[in-house]
Design a protein that fits this description.
By secondary structure, the chain is of the alpha+beta class. It contains eight helices and five strands, in the order αααααβββαββαα.
């Protein structure tokens, strides 16, 4: 009988960062990474623990949604179950944040080793990433996770919103840093790293070339002059 592991069902907020730091996809990392490069075994173990913690958050979030869906009669017993589930969801979220911090610790050696590759001098940024970096620079930002929807949001004090994919790319490149000692549902402050500030300064001094779609030549330039008779 085959004992091959199926792909992990619980995605984590650090998947993109793990793949960028290690050079392995999550599935490949789980399958063979533990037997490959030294140090990857710790990353695999920490990522598995985080995935398990994510499943715990998902379980209690789903249970809370079911309890509030109208399926059960509204009475004291229901209120007690809701209160108990909310407390369990908070505990699960706190445990998930602890597992995330442990995973980041195992990634530090890989990110330090890859730092020149991840943020080389004069590296170009996508326009969306540059805009996100500019938005975060003045007063930072806050990353929050909604307890019920599990959605991640990044907002600045000025009210600007940074897309989750853009933030993941900036974090993977070491251009921004967040305070992982605080739980996601309470909000994790985000600041630019030294590399982020340097990259922003370089980009401002030498604006990256913006790719534009070539336009058709003016009609006057394309139209042949009428022949004289």
């Amino acid at each position: 009988m085959s004992t091959a592991r199926t792909s992990p069902k619980a995605l984590t907020s650090l998947d993109a960062r793990v793949e960028s730091a290690t050079g392995w996809s999550i599935d490949a990392l789980w399958e063979t990474g533990v037997h490959a490069e030294e140090g990857l075994a710790d990353v695999v173990a920490a990522h598995r623990a985080l995935a398990d913690a994510e499943r715990g958050v998902t379980f209690y979030r789903t249970l809370l949604h079911r309890l509030s869906s109208g399926e059960f009669e509204v009475e004291d017993a229901l209120f007690q179950r809701i209160d108990r589930t909310v407390a369990q969801l908070q505990d699960a979220a706190a445990q998930r944040d602890e597992r995330a911090a442990e995973l980041l610790c195992t990634l530090e050696p890989f990110e330090e080793r890859n730092r020149p590759r991840l943020a080389p001098p004069g590296a170009d940024l996508l326009q969306a990433d540059y805009a996100a970096l500019v938005a975060i620079a003045p007063g930072g930002a806050v990353l929050r996770e909604h307890l019920l929807t599990h959605r991640m949001s990044v907002t600045t004090p000025a009210g600007s919103r940074v897309t989750w994919p853009a933030f993941q790319r900036l974090e993977a490149q070491g251009l921004v840093n967040r305070d992982i000692t605080r739980p996601l549902h309470a909000g994790q402050p985000i600041t630019l790293t030294d590399a982020g500030r340097a990259c922003l300064t370089r980009t401002r001094q030498s604006p990256p070339a913006v790719q534009t779609v070539p336009t058709a030549a003016p009609v006057a330039a394309r139209t042949a002059q009428p022949r004289r008779r």
